[in-house]
Amino acid sequence: MARERDDTIASRISRVLADRIIRGEIAPDARLRQDHIAEEFGASHVPVREAFRRLEAQGLAISVPRRGVRVASFDLKEVREVAEMRAALESLALRHAAQHLTPAILDAAEEATREGDAAADVRAWEEANRRFHRLILAPCGMARLLASIDDLHAASARFLFSAWQSGWEKRTDHDHRAILAALRQGRTEEAASILQKHVQWIGRAPVRTPSGTTREAFAIVG
Question: How many CB atoms lie within 10 A of CB 126?
Answer without folding.
Answer: 21
